[in-house]
Amino acid sequence: MNTPADIRAHAAQLLVQVLNGRSLDAVLVNRDESAQERGLLRTLCYGTIRWYWRLQAVLEKLSSQPVNELDAEVRALALIGLFQLLHTDIAPHAAVAETVEAARNLKLSRATGFLNAILRRCQREAENITSLIDQQLSIRTAHPQWFVDQLQQDWPWHAEKILNANNAHPPFWLRVNLQRISRDDYAARLAEQGIIAQLSAHAPEALLLSQAMDVNALPGFDDGLVSIQDAAAQMAAHLLDAQANHRVLDACAAPGGKTCHILELQPALKELIAVDASDKRLRRVDSNLKRLNQNATLIIGDAATPQEWWNGELFQRILLDVPCSATGVIRRHPDIKLLRRSTDIDRLATDQAVMLAQLWPLLAPGGRLVYASCSMLKAENAHVIEAFLAEYPDAIDNTAVLIEKYNLHTIDSKSPGVVIQVGEGEMDGFYYACLDKR
């Protein structure tokens, strides 16, 4: 059994790994912990990373030493301690005592006096310090300055709302498999277990639960009655609108949520081909297909080089869910704030444009390509599509018709595609463009 100090020590070690460039999902693997211990560990890791930029600013005000010169694990413990004091209801005395004790567990006894002094001073001076640093939007909302600047340039009237939504607790959406059960009937099954679910105004198969839960506790999960997928992501299959006997390509398909949803909505496809560059990620697609008793052709391949894997037969529908900055799903993956760099955006946009141009010839005349990203930045969305439409006269942006059909709201009516703002209808941030070929 791990002590509270053990959990904080482990959280500090994980935080150091994330600050060194590893993703939180990659480092946050289950050890021999109880559910309660695992819950505390996740709270400390996710919370400290979510509020990192604000906590770092507080630490700089409190520390007599340059923060960047501190031992990495000492700095991580200080940030974890500050997170507990400023952003949780953990008793202050426990937050201080257990964080200081965690330093001893990490053989950092020399740092206990420093940590104790920092955290005690925070208790006394927090109000004055935060009122000062929170005047800066990037610190108040705990985002890197480059991202705040870009968001304010793209969405001057929506930027702060998006930043605040990024710090909200992520909603827990389900996608009901209508081949197996109706949404109302599944909601009734949940209600029988005391689980209340809300409907979505946009995604016909979506149910929103009041809190996250173990998927194994969901009735019929192992039997394929339901999957975990955000309501905004569920719009992809509807906008694609695949019909019977269509050949469908799902490019960049992993982990397979959209692949499976397409098959659930249209079981009479001629063929669905799911392509992903990662063999490991493609195995997740296979796992999801098997759980839902669905079939697709899986191909390890790069969407930017279809000549390496395409057999020459045209597709009537193509879903291109491009690799992107993922700045629309920060509330689910707060480490994006630490791992993403401003220099990544131009590279990503270039890659997205290449994929789009390379896949367009694979689309049959009269067919549809749905371009999707979970970015909130125009450089990866509207700017890519605008450039594409200018170069390819046989492409028509037909998104506006579908916006009305699915009761969607876009925060950018002057550009092609639809922009779903983070938090709109409790959905993640997403961008879609429906491109029909003349």
Task: Explain what this protein looks like in three dimensions.
Helix content is 46%, strand content 14%. With 438 residues, it is of the alpha/beta class. It has 3 domains: 4-142, N-utilizing Substance Protein B Homolog, Chain A; 172-228, Sun protein, domain 3 (Alpha-Beta Plaits, 2-Layer Sandwich); 231-437, Rossmann fold (3-Layer(aba) Sandwich), CATH 3.40.50. The strands form 2 sheets. Strands 5, 6, 7, 8, 9, 10, 11 and 12 form an 8-stranded mixed beta sheet that branches. It has a 4-stranded antiparallel beta sheet with strand order 2-3-1-4, covered by helices on one side. Helix 12 crosses helix 13 (257-265). The longest helix has 22 residues, at 112-133. The radius of gyration is 23 Å and the shape is globular. The chain starts with a helix and ends with a strand.
Structure, briefly:
By secondary structure, this protein is an alpha/beta fold. Helices cover 46% and strands 14% of the residues.
Q: What is the radius of gyration computed over CA atoms, rounded to a whole number of angstroms?
A: 23 Å
- Can you tell me the number of structural domains? 3
- Mean of residue pLDDT values: 96
- CATH homologous superfamily placement of the largest domain: Vaccinia Virus protein VP39
- Which architecture of the largest domain does the CATH hierarchy give at level 2? 3-Layer(aba) Sandwich
Shape: globular
The major β-sheet equals:
8 strands, mixed
